Amino acid sequence: MTTRVAVWSTGTLGRHAIAGIDRNPELELVGVFVSNPDKDGKDAGQLADLGRDLGVIASTDRDSVLAAKPDCIVYCAITEDRFFEAYEDLVGFLEAGINVVASGPVILLYPNPTLPDSMWERIEEAGKTGNASLHANGIDPGWANDIFPLQLTSLSQRIDQVRVLEIADYSTYDQAVTMGEIFGFGKPIDEVAPLWQPGMLASGWGPVVRQMAAGLGVTLDEPLVEVVERLPAEADMSTVCVDIKAGTMAAVRFEVIGMVDGEPRIVVEHVTRTHVDQAPDWPKPASGDGSYRIEITGEPMMTVDFTHKGEFGDHNDSGMIITAQRLVNAVPAVVAAKPGLVTALDLPLVTGRGIVGV
């Protein structure tokens, strides 16, 4: 029996989720919600650029999508600038008895003190009311800094530090709100964008630091430590969605550090460029335009680089695909999970079951 799935939002991520669901014989696409009225009434296959119709019509009417009675919603809506609205969406789905896999808000990846206890309790109550589960994940924050590094630590005899890096060129990352407003690329270098406000990095990447700590059985010092270094552009340049003038912000390197008894034990680091030649002294990807790197110091010393690229070469396109597929492939496990919030530590092994040779 197939699992009935709806996709919520069909932007850069959602269109890949539609394609992933369509390719999986164990999943059935039964609804698509869109916020853009220009997409209302269009076939999901058109929105996903599949070159064919799927017979599922996108709608701006929330109730009509829910009336299709999906077992699970793949929530791909942008959440960076609409946290409370997204939170209400997710709680409402749970109360209605619909399971959810979501790319955000990323703060929901793992319970943490950034949100009040009442908000976590409300998720649990909603899950019990509807007998439904919520799993927030993706690639980063997500698989690249929870399951991936934790699996590698299973080979360790002694662990001194786990460092997880994303090293990427964001010049082809087509998310104007994230690039321009959240990161502040193209903004004056002395303007502190939302992501660089104190506590924001710990809100976004702290959950995966805390999840790794839980997986390793250690208690972190509070608060988590944030380190940020931003660099200006040396000349005028453009990305796919943001123009960057000379002297405005063009590159950033940050760390979110989990200390244990005063020692840095779990570190999430990002090296984000908007041109491959920027900041030559910063860590560079293993190949191409980007990679995820796991460095475990201890006994033995281990480094693993994970690279990806789309079928036609672009790593930002493949970044959207792997984010979407981490959610889509987790749907059956989340539907079968206990009610309430389900973290990566709660799920069984998630694989690409059903999509080999499709």
Detailed description of the structure:
This protein has 358 residues and is α/β, with parallel strands linked by helices. The chain folds into 2 domains: 3-136 and 319-341, Rossmann fold (3-Layer(aba) Sandwich); 143-307, Dihydrodipicolinate Reductase, domain 2, CATH 3.30.360. It is 28% helix and 25% strand. It has a 7-stranded parallel sheet with strand order 3-2-1-4-5-6-15, sandwiched between helices. A 6-stranded mixed sheet has the order 8-11-12-7-13-14, with helices on one face. Helix 1 (14-23) links the parallel strand 1 and strand 2 (27-33).
In a nutshell, what does this entry contain?
The protein has 358 residues and is of the alpha/beta class. The protein has helices at 14-23, 44-47, 62-67, 83-95, 117-130, 147-153, 176-182, 200-216, 315-335, and strands at residues 3-8, 27-33, 58-59, 72-75, 99-102, 133-136, 158-169, 225-232, 237-238, 243-244, 249-260, 263-273, 290-299, 302-306, 340-341.
How are the SSEs placed, and which strands pair?
Layout: E1 3-8, H1 14-23, E2 27-33, H2 44-47, E3 58-59, H3 62-67, E4 72-75, H4 83-95, E5 99-102, H5 117-130, E6 133-136, H6 147-153, E7 158-169, H7 176-182, H8 200-216, E8 225-232, E9 237-238, E10 243-244, E11 249-260, E12 263-273, E13 290-299, E14 302-306, H9 315-335, E15 340-341
Parallel strand pairs: 1-2, 1-4, 2-3, 4-5, 5-6, 6-15, 7-12
Antiparallel strand pairs: 7-13, 8-11, 9-10, 11-12, 13-14
Helix pairs in contact: 1-9, 4-5
